[in-house]
Amino acid sequence: MRGGRSSLVTLAKKCKDILASNWQGNLNTIKADAKGSKEEIYTSKVKYLLRKENPYIWVPEKDLHNVNTIIDERGSFAVTSPLPSPLANLLRSLKKLPTRVALTGDVVLLKDNKAKLAAECLRDTILSDQRAVEESSNSVSGILSSCLHSTLRSKNLLELLEDIEQYTVYKFNPRSCTYISWDGGNHEVDLEHFEASKSDPLLPFSMGLIDGINQNETRRRALILFCITFLNENAKVRHQSIGHSVQLQFHLRHRSFVNINKVQCLSFFWEKSV
């Protein structure tokens, strides 16, 4: 599905934001055996780091991707908007899926110096994330310190760095990019727009912010006040308990799911109504 130039640029930005806010995705390669490729697909979840338009992917050394890509470098990579588990479960119960990005392209093995450079980039990114948290305001650092470590990009990528010798690193060179909306609609994205778009620097912390806000009733109510005051919305809020957390449901003017802001506070999903 194609739209006007402005909408295509917006979709490209959404794709870049999703890739920047997550650290794991599903890598798909073509199965290979002694007789070559049979066009069957092998899939596994892998961790990655986005640099410009390229995901750098770390694959465990015993994973079949390492064999498949020797025969055929073609592959695809799918990444979803990261959501807290309670919200993800709620969306599934409503037969809705998170927005996601699907890339097709080549999975290129990095050797020797290039692999070392990728590892150094990984280390620098982790240190940068950690410094950002340390230098943030007391309110932000308080939110991030109360969230689960599994929701922070730096904590998840650190696991790679601690056992880097057990992984093979690849650079994914995309040849096509598709944005998949929550209702299942496919939207082709121009690679030039995708490459030129820039992600919000707060996105690597979005999951931690979501989880940290959900740990505290005062923070949740402060976010409600923020929406009413700064977004000029008459927000009617209904609390819905899901496991040990509470999601806030906003009833606004139109029927769709949207983000609160660029930080992707999707733990408070909005259902707009007339």
Q: Pairing-aware structural class of the strands and helices?
A: alpha+beta
Listing every helix as H and every strand as E from the N terminus to the C terminus, the arrangement reads HEEEHEHEHHHEEHHHEEE
The share of residues in helices is: 25-40%
The span between the termini is: 27 Å
CATH architecture: Roll
CATH superfamily: Electron Transport, Fmn-binding Protein, Chain A
| Average of pLDDT | 77
Main pleated-sheet profile: 6 strands, antiparallel, barrel
Order of strands across the main sheet: 1-2-3-6-5-4
InterPro entries: Split_barrel_FMN-bd
Detailed description of the structure:
The strands form 2 sheets. This protein has a 6-stranded antiparallel beta barrel, surrounded by 4 helices. 38% of the residues lie in helices and 31% in strands. The protein has a single domain (5-199), classed as Pnp Oxidase, Chain A, CATH 2.30.110. The chain is globular. It has 9 helices and 10 strands. It is an alpha+beta fold and 274 residues long. It has helices at residues 5-21, 65-71, 85-93, 112-134, 138-146, 153-162, 191-196, 206-214, 217-230, and strands at residues 24-33, 36-51, 54-60, 74-80, 100-109, 167-180, 186-189, 236-242, 245-252, 270-272. The relative contact order is 0.17.
